[in-house]
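As described in the Methods, two query proteins were run sequentially through the folding procedure within a single session, without resetting any intermediate state between them. The first query and its resulting structure tokens are shown here.
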Amino acid sequence: MKPTLPVGDRGEQPAAPRREPPATSRGIRTRAALVAAARVVFERDGYLDARLTDIAREAGCATGTFYTYFSNKEEIFAAVLDEAQQDMMHPGMGRVRDADDPCAVLEASNRAYLTAYRRNAKLMGLMEQVAHVDPEFRRFRTDRAEAFIARNARGIADLQARSIVDPDVDPMTASRALSGMVSRLAYGVFVSGEVDGDGREHDLDELVFTVTRLWANALRFPGHR
């Protein structure tokens, strides 16, 4: 099966601190409720002001129940980020009419990634903030970035092997440059609220078109040479 070319940070999930998952269906439901509640509280109050009592209350359980599943705020925040990352890794590309058209796959992948990033923008902003003050989350962010860069490099190398893109560029260097471009753009638009030259919010279709064209031009896709 031909791999789709990842465009944003959708690589293999780096390890995050976690306990063994609950063994019972009730435990699984309770843990899931706590993670969902934590996301609500973190997005509403921010990481520093989020309180475990508020998370437990949002989940409809006692504070003591929280400690059955998580040791502290850092651990449940890692669990929330883990779920967000899974969403961004596998956002769903919809139906691509011609899977053999590399530009169609590239565009669909870009659209899926940017849509998922917008959906998780508040958490991406929080992760960036926490990474500045917590070495564990800084390593998590670095591992995450390196994982998707490596995955994109494998996608570029596959396209080179199939004589679709420029064979002369180094896949890892190209991936680092192009993946970083898309991730930085997504952060600026969806987290920082950067606007276009006319002071308007960026249109998603325009973003997808632009990053797809830049990737295609940079790698010299067919018709972009």
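Immediately afterward, the second query was submitted; its sequence and tokens are:
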Amino acid sequence: MTTAVAKQPQLTAQQQTIVAFNNKVNGSFVQNQLKSVLGANSGTFATSLVEIFTNDKQLQECDVNKVVQEAIKAATLKLPLNKQLGYAYLMVFKNWDKEARRTVPTPTLTIGYRGYIQMAMRTGQYRNINADVVYEGELVKKDKLSGGIDLSGDKMSDKIEGFFAHFETINGFSKTLYMSLSEMAAYALKYSPSFKRKVTPDTPLPTVDGLCDLANGQAQNGPTGKVGWEGDFLSMGVKTVLRRLLSKYGYLSIEMMGALAEDEKEPSVQQVRDVEFSETKEIISVDEQTGEILEAGNDNNPFE
């Protein structure tokens, strides 16, 4: 008498992808990499990574090897991967694959402003560091000479006036950077590659006033769920003012310099990212014989 063998339910494509990712993360190669940078905390990080991947359908469309590579960058920086915490998170962007001649989903490690604060405090060089949104009524005055601002006023509404970042080192040096909302909107339009590729009849470039209205709408209703500035203008603004202050005046550890360099990479034509951006560098051409300045412009940014 033969015994009937129960049929195993067939896994869906999504389930197969999740199983493959789980096997990849828990394989000896990845586990050894995580243990080398996280030690006893490697297991917690791996469990969190699998959970993030399981609950994110966009990540599941990406190459699992690339997802793991981006996650290991966060592990190296000792930043937890959690969008809600705001230290670091994995975002998916549609990048052009030249060989395949189509856009492909690509995972990208994005460092939030809390991640920069965390890395700065680890250096032991900062007494305090802060960055936030400035609302109507809070800004009393600005000192152009010292760069200091007085934010002792009472908040009158949820209308955004601007953004600030401030730090003080243990030796007493302090610096503050303030950008008004309109300055931040103009900055985003000038440097963000996500806006530079919108100049088409179907997707026209937003205006400064339009972005200001978007930011104030998000201040009242929360992020929209989109990527980058159009999705969470407030977080992007806080991150931008903090990143600019630290990169110009702050004490930077090796890991911070690496994180800033990664965040400021110029996107190529084949790989456009809707995340933070680098400021265009001015290039001046000089006649070698006469010393006469011939022209000044940007560094051939393909998105200008």
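The longest helix spans residues 233-249. We note this only descriptively and draw no conclusion about the first query from it.
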